[in-house]
Amino acid sequence: MADKSQVCSVWVGSETGILKGVSLSKKQAFNFCEMSCLSRDQEVCILGWGDQHETEVLVGSVNGTVKTFSTEKGIFTETRQCGESTQGRFTGLAVTDSALITCVETGLLRVWKEGSTDTVEINAGTNVCRMRQNPSQRNQVATGGKENGLKVWDLERPETPIFTSKNVRNDWLDLRVPEWVRDMAFIPDSDKIVTCTGHHQVRVYDPASPQRRPVLEAHFGEYPLTALSLPANQDSVVVGNTHGELAILDLRKGLVRGCLKGLAGGVRGLQCHPSLPLVASCGLDRFLRVHSLEDRSLQHKVYLKSRLNCVLLSSKDLELSSSAITGDVEEVKEEGGEVDEVWDTMEMIKDQAKKRATEEEEAVVTGVEKTTKKRKVVK
Amino acid sequence: MDVVEEHDIQDKPTKKKTKKQKKQPKPPHENGNDNMIEKTEPEHVDAPAEWSFPPTFSVSEIKNKQRRHLMFMKLKQEKRKQKVAMKKKKKKERDALGDKAPPKEVPKTIENQRVYDETTVNPEDEEVAFDEGTDEFSAYFNRLTNPKVLITTSDRPRGRTVRFCNQLATVIPDAHVYYRRGLALKKVIPQCIARGFTYLMVINEDRKVPNGMVLCHLPDGPTAHFKVSSVRLRKEMKRRGKDPTEHSPEVILNNFTTRLGHSMGRLFAALFPHDPQFVGRQVATFHNQRDFIFFRFHRYIFKNEKRVGIQELGPRFTLKLRSLQKGTFDSKFGEYEWVLKRHENDVCRRRFNL
């Protein structure tokens, strides 16, 4: 069990309550649960990293328990009861130095400190859909929901939010525009927050500016946007909607840069890799897909038999194979060396193509990967 | 000789295949008078033409449409001749071998060549069994509820659709047809739930012909949207039997292999009561082939132990799944479990979803 969990680079939570670990380099998926005591009230609503080194995965279930899974040991080490199922599903889970922050749908945001039983409670309004933590300032969290605008809270001052957004102006018929914040993210290196709504809008808010209304608004599609993620480098954002459409939007002007194809069901979880241009998506069609952001092609597609609720990517290099497959790694490097002198600038892309070629020889190949390989060779 | 050759290539109505010399086709020039003379000459030789073209030549490079057509026809005839010759040869060999001949090869069909779908359900899979055991249909399959179906249409239905709904109501036990008075489905659904209905079936009509169906499982269940085609009412069926009786029919679900197919199969199975009444000898079949679901309703009779006679009663129609939405009907804000995306599905003709 331990070696299986150490290899996994993507963690997915499903509706049946099973935590699944996927190793993309070995092309295998593992279930981490006990098959005998499965039940629907253990449905995983939220996943989060337990610590900075990504050795622990926190799993939040519908019945209010938060389980800690250790990736090194491969077992669930701890279970905490953080509320009951009557209070709603978890909509956010985060960790600050030794404290666990949970938020549920009814708007109750709690900070659970280690050891002590009392909690700091914040009421974030009703119908909260999402709570996210600022990765650079870990005591700031943002919440938003249906008819509940974006609010940014500082956990040291739990009475009032430090930023409350204002709804946009009335539309051209002078009617109030409904708001429904589904997901949000903090843009690194600045104060800005980008949100996606159930009315197919993507909005950027800037707490540093005097205006509380969104600084930028973009539209995509006709269906509610359910998930959002920021890629590593550029000023763009990846969004997914209930129809299975994934799009990359540019945040400078608010235009659609491109769509990622392949999903057939609603997107429930989306995450971009911290350093590589990859995005992992999971949804109701029971597949985990990893797309490349540069050429928008499908890199990996894994069938995981239950509907998937959330996905968590680890920061380590996904394509890199483990020590068990050193032979193939060496082979790849040799080939790369030959081509090096000729294609200096194209080196990265070529390497990936070769790596993919070796991976295909290993295990099950999906038709899509074959076509991407062909495209690379033609280039 | 040269002149004849050129005319040969130019001339479209007169297919002259006289002395073919192995040479390149010359650029054509018109000789109007000679054309007329050539027509009266005898028709062509049976020896196939053997002119050598440069290897990259293809029929599509000829700019003149009629000449191109001529060349293409010749090519096709060539191919057909070769095919017939091959078949004859094979048959001869087969006859010569007699008993020792290898068995006949199975012809390739699209179903044979179907790309293996990784979501095909393995019967021993525990996770899928758990998923199905606790999904929205579990109440029906655990015998906690009995099906009760409400059939309605889009607003202001015309004759064919009305008759179709009435015939469907005779086929499905405990089905009630209601007139849709322009009511919104989202308001109809809570009322249905309150009155104990388990299914809502809405037949959509376009230009006096039913063309769509929304099937919504009621307490909180999935909503499937289908395209309906080839509807044949009872009057239009040849050699049909008498009207169906009130007995519960047996249900046959064919070829639902993938995970999505399983969900569809359960959706259809939950329309009918649990226990079929074999006295009635009626059977409803949902046959899936190439992602189209064919519905047939028959009455059978066993003539002896090995032979059965069947009579088709009831309406027949074809369904194609367009989307499966989680939750009750909410096309704007609901989450879709599966959506038919035509351009992505049409890429490979041998890949199917159900």
UniProtKB/TrEMBL annotation, chain A:
Q: Name one GO cellular component term.
A: preribosome, large subunit precursor
Name of this chain's protein: WD repeat-containing protein 74
Name the SUPFAM superfamilies for this protein.
WD40 repeat-like (SSF50978)
**Where is the stretch described as Disordered?**
354-379
Enumerate the InterPro entries for this protein.
Answer: WD40/YVTN_repeat-like_dom_sf (IPR015943), WD40_repeat_dom_sf (IPR036322), WD40_rpt (IPR001680), WDR74/Nsa1 (IPR037379)
Where does it primarily localize? nucleus
Subcellular location(s): the record lists: Nucleus, Nucleolus
UniProt keywords, alphabetically: Methylation, Nucleus, Phosphoprotein, Repeat, WD repeat
CDD domains the record matches: WDR74
Q: Which Pfam families match?
A: WD40 (PF00400)
Automatic annotation (TrEMBL), chain B:
Q: Where is this region: Disordered?
A: 1-118
- Biased composition of type Basic and acidic residues is found at 1-13, 27-47, 93-108
| One of the Pfam families matching this protein, by short name | Brix
Basic residues bias: start-end ranges: 14-26, 65-92
Q: Which GO terms describe its biological process?
A: maturation of 5.8S rRNA; maturation of LSU-rRNA
Q: What this chain does, per the record?
A: May be required for ribosome biogenesis.
Q: What is this protein called?
A: Ribosome production factor 1
